[in-house]
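hey
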């Protein structure tokens, strides 16, 4: 009872007025990183479509889809996505001094983990919705891949 009122007053006066601007500032790099994940998935699937349209090879298509499944664990391809979130390091330094925010690296690492998880979910959903082995008509495969990609991105 004795701590509640001063704590409430402290939060109301010293923290709450800044929350909206802090969240907006932090969401820039986070949003940018997640957008980069989306664009990477889109690019990789487009490459699968283009390769299939050139080769019309169902075996190679299956290999490309299998390779897509490893995308979340491909540190080279995911690195540009992760780098977008590293901008939080600078933004959180100011918060660290003003609001005693610690464990900045943990915030960045968790955000990057969520990005990887999002990519895992995207490629898994893609695989579930599109199975090259069930495609009887190779003329419609590219169209089907595009539709599945758009569904996953939705």
């Amino acid at each position: 009872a004795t701590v509640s009122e001063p704590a409430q007053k402290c939060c109301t006066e010293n923290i709450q007025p800044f929350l909206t601007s802090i969240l907006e500032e932090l969401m820039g790099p986070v949003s940018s990183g997640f957008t980069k994940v989306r664009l990477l998935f889109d690019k990789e699937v487009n490459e699968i479509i283009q390769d299939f349209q050139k080769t019309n090879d169902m075996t190679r298509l299956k290999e490309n889809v299998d390779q897509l499944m490893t995308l979340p664990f491909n540190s080279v391809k995911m690195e540009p996505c992760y780098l977008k979130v590293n901008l939080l390091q600078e933004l959180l330094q100011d918060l660290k001094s003003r609001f005693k925010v610690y464990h900045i690296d943990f915030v960045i690492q968790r955000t990057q983990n969520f990005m990887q998880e999002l990519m895992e979910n995207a490629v898994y959903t893609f695989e579930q919705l599109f199975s090259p082995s069930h495609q009887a008509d190779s003329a419609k495969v590219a169209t089907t891949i595009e539709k599945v990609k758009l569904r996953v991105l939705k």
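The chain has a mean pLDDT of 88. Residues 4-55 form the longest helix (52 residues).
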